[in-house]
Amino acid sequence: MSHKKTIFSGIKPSGDLTIGNYIGAITQWVEMQEEYNCIFSVVDYHAITVKQKPEDLRRRILDITKIYLASGIDPKKSIVFQQSAVPAHTELGWVLNCCGTYISDLKRMIQFKEKAGDKQDAVSVGLFDYPVLMAADIILYDTQIVPVGEDQKQHVELARDIAKRFNNQYGPVFVIPEALIKKEGARIMSLSDPMKKMAKSDDNPVGFIALLDSPEVARKKIMKAVTDSGSEIIYDPKNKPALANLLTIHSSLSGESIKSLEKKFAGRGYGDFKKELAEVVAVFLTDFQKKFNKISDADAKKILENGRKQATKLADAKMEKVRKVIGVR
Ligand code: AMP
Ligand code: TRP
Fold first, then answer.
1. For residue range 27-69, what is the model confidence (pLDDT) as tens digits?
2. What CATH architecture applies to the domain 205-292?
């Protein structure tokens, strides 16, 4: 590859992608395509850490691929592929389980604690071990930068630790990656609870806006979104977390700065603001879905197959090195 830095990121097909995924992760990827070697994966083996219906999983893998493309990921510039199609990911995951990762590392993971709750012994081993597979995804490609939302920072830091420990034991095999977190919009919150992340797995569908929600449904969700006490439109995440979140969504999708939104809505109330936001979201979704619907399943499959070939070449070369240094070749 060229002298450009390599970035790697991915989203798991475990639910319907939200505007949180789009604003927090994907928009950043699109901008980075010009300057970096980009690898974007549909990380399907991460999705099965919790139960999935096979037919839903199959559908979502193609939907996420189309969402990447509709968002502006260009397969001529970036590698777009499905994780399970490149077996080196799970193979390296196993090696890293053994060489570089401690159980105590995984016990510290906030996402595991959140997801397993008080059932830590009754969830799959995969849910516990998942950050190691993620580390493998990243370091397999000599990735330097991992653009993700705030919630993934701890996992990328773990990938750094694992890579360092492996290198200490076996020599400089892996590049040490770094997380890149957006300043604004890195954490879009639920519309029904501004203390909770907007998540695709949310049981309460009013809390999130899916990229494939109909514009009408999305409008209603915005109008129902919780707001804070008071009535002024000002960006104050501490005292007005719900409104701050809505302002961030507006600004991210419309491109208008939060400052200028505050000015525009000075002296006007939440109702006015929400009406405009509902419109911004509806226009965004209409436009996005037009692009999405133009891409056929066959197109998406072709792009994934092409990406598989490119990714396999890189991954296999690294994996062969790993097999050698640990002594199985
Ligand atoms: P996930 O939905 O957990 O598979 O996350 C996929 C990517 O989207 C990761 O980079 C997350 O950090 C990012 N992401 C997910 N939800 C949000 C959110 N509510 N706000 C910002 N980024 C998010
Ligand atoms: N764990 C990430 C998430 O839940 C998805 C992911 C898997 C990922 N492998 C990755 C992100 C590698 C960046 C790089 O969002």
1. 999 999 999 999 999 999 999 999 999 999 999 999 999 999 9
2. Orthogonal Bundle (1.10)
Alpha-carbon distance 163 to 95, whole Å? 11
Class of domain 6-181+297-326: alpha beta
In order, the DSSP letters of 2-16 are -SSPEEEEEE--SS-
pTM exceeds 0.90: yes
**1 touches 33 (CB < 8 A):** no
**Single-letter code of the amino acid located at 133:** L
What dihedral do alpha carbons 228, 232, 235, 239 form, nearest 10°?
-40
Residue 115 annotated in active site = yes
What does residue 195 show for φ and ψ, rounded to 5 degrees?
-95, -10
Distance in angstroms (rounded) separating the CA atoms of residues 100 and 176? 13
Helix crossing, 297-326 with 54-71: angle to 10°? 100
Using alpha carbons, list the distances in angstroms from residue 56 to 50, 59, 123, 304.
Answer: 13, 5, 21, 18
Q: Whose CA is nearest to atom 8 of ligand 1?
A: 21
In the chain, what are the domain boundaries?
Answer: 6-181+297-326, 205-292
pLDDT tens for each residue of 253-273: 999 999 999 999 999 999 999
Q: How far is the CA of 281 from the centre of ligand 2 (A)?
A: 26
Question: For residues 22 and 43, what is the distance between their CA atoms, to the nearest angstrom?
Answer: 16
pLDDT of residue 1 exceeding 80, the answer is no
Residue 7 in contact with ligand 1 by CB distance below 6 A? no
Q: Which of 42, 46, 89 to mutate to test the pocket of ligand 2 (most atoms within 8 A of CB)?
A: 46
